[in-house]
Amino acid sequence: PGALRLSEVMSDPEPGGRDAAYEWVEVVNVSAEAVDLSGWAIGDSSERQQLPALEIPSLGYVVIAGDSAKFGNDVPVVRVPGGEIGNGLGNTGDYLVLIAPNGEIGDEISYGDTTKVFDPAPTAPGRGATIGVREPSADPASENWAETERPTPGEPNVFAPKANATGTAAAGGAAESAGAPTSGANG
After folding, report:
1. Contact at 8 Å (CB) between 108 and 7?
2. 3-state secondary structure of 55
3. Is residue 172 helix, strand or coil?
4. pLDDT tens digits, residue range 152-179?
C-alpha cells in the first residue's frame, strides 16, 4: 500500500436518486512526509480521473468529491473532473482505486456486492452513512472497514462501540475512534 490510503466512502448521500454529484471519498496520508496529489488518479469499476494538485500533510486528510457535495470551510476538498467520482459510486457496491503517479495501485477497496478486492466485501453503507477504515495504516483487509457512527469528512473516522459477547457495549460505551493514522492507534 502507498502513502495515500482510502479512508472513508460516502456512496449513497442524501437525498437519494441520481446522487453521484454529492458522493465523496476521503483519503489519508499515512506517511511521514507531505504528499502532493499531482499525478494521482481515483477511479471506480468503470472510469479513472486525474486528481488536481493539493499537498496533503503527513497524517492529513483530503476529501475527493463530486461537484455538489458540501463541506465545512475547514475540510480540504478537491473536486473530480466531470463532477462525479468515476461513473458514480454504486449504492449497493462498487470498486474504488487510488493510483499513484507511477501507475501502481496505492490503495483499493471493494464494498457491498462487489468482491473484486475483498471477498467477503465490507457491507455497503446505508443512505447518508459512510464506511470507513478502522486503522488507516494497517494492511488492507475487509474486516478493517465498517460503517462509521457518522460521516467525518476530513478527520479520523468514528465508530459505534463494539458489542462484547453478551451483546452490550464494550468498556464504558464510548464511541470508538480510528485515531491518528499510525500503527498502534486504537480502532
Report:
1. no
2. strand
3. helix
4. 999 999 999 876 666 555 444 445 555 5
Structure-model confidence comparison of residues 128 and 161, the more confident one: 128
List CB contacts of 181: < 8 A, sequence separation 6 or more. Answer: 5, 7, 28, 29, 30, 59, 135, 136, 137, 156
DSSP character for 136? Answer: T
Identity of the residue numbered 111? Y
How many Å apart are CA 131 and CA 152, to the nearest integer?
10
CA–CA separation, 161 and 159 (whole Å):
6
Helices (H) and strands (E) in the chain, counts: 0, 14
- Nearest C-alpha neighbor of 8 from the set 83, 64, 68, 74: 64
Whether cis (ω within 30° of 0) applies to the bond prior to 120 is yes
Cα angle 121, 2, 33 (rounded to 5 degrees) comes to: 135
Residue position matching grid coordinates 453503507: 125
DSSP E strand boundaries for 24-128? 24-29, 35-36, 41-43, 48-50, 55-56, 61-65, 77-79, 93-99, 105-112
Cell reading at 151: 460521516
Extract the C-alpha cell encoding 81: 473532473
